[in-house]
Design goal:
By secondary structure, the chain is of the alpha/beta class. The chain contains eleven helices and 30 strands.
Length: 475
């Protein structure tokens, strides 16, 4: 049996990376640091001879993103567990320990966020191996990163002086995000490390600590796991999970336990928590600038700037220390020094009822995606991509009709009792109230333009009769 059960936490919203990261498609699913998403990079790090098949804790909204990105990299998994509500890392860790412990009483669990960037996978695995013996002895192992600046966005771990050749340092305390002056004293002290949020523990040892320090969490998670049900390749926790307090593992257990040790990560690490963090982590040109774009970027007499564009041409002239993010439906310009302040902008947008913090103009579905192109009075135009072998639900609409024009690929179209195939430049019309379905029987993605017209055009005007993905009305 392999040594360690990897359990990836994959439910965050990443609001500090708005407008790229939004609730329906948060930062862990974006390709911010390379050709893979942060979630996929995390999965790759936790695959191999050292690890059992992956387990992921996510939510219903992101479940198909998780499954699709696992499939893209060929990752095998044992569990995709779905929370009915978010409850922070305390209950999440408890669920991980319960699942692993029920399968193997001697299981070791590695709890890892899905949205961190780590430079050297080999060094990371070596650090995990150093934590195995302490974890088998019943200690909780955390992984610290040697700080190179007085960072105020990270938590810190204070350790005792190293004793002998022991690779694991005893932990004195955890400190939440400090002020800059306090962080500088930590840096000068030499025995403080950034808290990576990665933990290794014996499932039985952590459950004993929950029994002692947070029995209400343990009871709620046990009930939720007993109530859990399989749905496709997912396992949905029962509603009892909502009865667990929403609390971090640090507050629930770590600050109360006396058997915690720290192993150092000797590799570059970032939680990619803000645009400034992404700039710091990324490769830069001779002027300190970073560009990530599928559009085009020009810079003249500009230094230490970060530019992300998904389509628009962006030009910077004579500026320093700026972040510019240009998307189809939102543009952000801010000083890198004030990168953390984006949280107040997102909060204001939410309070005003805007859904621009929730979803992009391209919305991903298990069958592919659709993207809004234009919307006016009583009509809107969308582009749809249907993946090979995918099938939309059999559905109808009360308030709108639809016109479809195939741009490329082949689509099978069901209208009422009739089925037909449409190829490039062919079209059809769906009347109000008519049952219909799209599917792609081909080997390549199919693209079509959809023109909707009617009195009500929102996504909740869907009556589903059959759906292979078992979704709700707005999914």
């Amino acid at each position: 049996m392999r040594e360690i059960w990897p359990f990836i936490l994959c439910g965050g919203a990443g609001t500090r990376l708005w407008p790229l990261s939004r609730e329906a498609f948060p930062k862990q699913f974006h390709r911010l640091t390379g050709s893979l998403s942060l979630f996929q990079e995390t999965c790759r790090r936790l695959m191999g001879d050292l690890f059992a098949p992956l387990s992921i804790l996510s939510n219903h909204q992101h479940r198909f993103l998780v499954a699709e990105q696992l499939q893209e990299i060929g990752a095998s998994f044992s569990n995709i567990v779905l929370e009915p509500v978010a409850r922070n890392t305390g209950p999440a860790a408890c669920v991980a320990a319960l699942i692993a412990g029920r399968a193997d009483p001697d299981a070791l669990v590695l709890l890892a966020p899905s949205d961190h960037a780590i430079v050297d996978t080999t060094a990371f695995r070596e650090a995990v191996e150093l934590g195995i013996d302490p974890a088998r002895q019943g200690k909780l192992v955390t992984f610290g990163v040697e700080p190179d600046c007085p960072h105020t966005g990270y938590g810190y771990i204070e350790t005792s002086p190293q004793e002998g050749a022991n690779a694991a340092l005893n932990v004195r305390r955890f400190v939440e995000k400090p002020s800059r002056d306090v962080a500088q004293t930590y840096l000068d002290g030499g025995n403080f490390y950034w808290n990576s949020g990665i933990f290794l523990f014996a499932a039985a040892a952590l459950l004993q600590l929950f029994e002692k320090h947070a029995p209400s969490i343990l009871a709620a998670c046990r009930r939720a796991l007993n109530e859990s049900a399989k749905d496709l390749e997912f396992r949905s926790l029962g509603d009892s999970y909502a009865q667990a307090p929403s609390i971090s593992l640090d507050y629930a257990i770590l600050e109360k336990a006396d058997n915690i040790v720290c192993v150092l990560l000797t590799t570059g690490w970032s939680d990619v928590g803000s645009w400034s963090e992404l700039w710091s982590y990324s490769d830069k040109d001779a002027c300190g600038n970073v560009t990530k774009d599928s559009g085009k970027v020009s810079m003249a007499d500009s230094e230490n700037c970060f530019v992300y564009s998904d389509n628009a041409y962006v030009a910077l002239v004579g500026v320093k220390d700026l972040v510019v993010v240009a998307l189809r439906d939102a543009v952000l310009v801010l000083s890198r020094e004030h990168a953390e302040d984006i949280k107040s902008v997102v909060a204001e947008l939410k309070s005003n009822g805007s859904d621009i913090t929730l979803r992009h103009d391209r919305v991903y579905r298990p069958w592919g995606w659709y993207q809004g192109l234009h919307r006016g009075e009583r009509y809107q135009v969308k582009c749809l991509m249907v993946k090979p072998g995918a099938k939309l639900s059999l559905q109808s609409h009360h308030h709108r009709s639809e016109h479809w024009v195939v741009v490329s690929g082949t689509l099978e179209v069901t209208k009422g009792e009739e089925t037909a195939f449409l190829t490039e430049n062919q079209s059809t019309y769906i009347a109000v109230g008519e049952k219909h379905r799209l599917s792609n029987p081909g080997k390549i993605p199919a693209f079509l333009i959809e023109v909707q017209s009617g009195a009500y055009l929102n996504e909740d005007d869907i009556v589903r009769f059959e759906d292979i993905y078992r979704r709700g009305a707005e999914e």
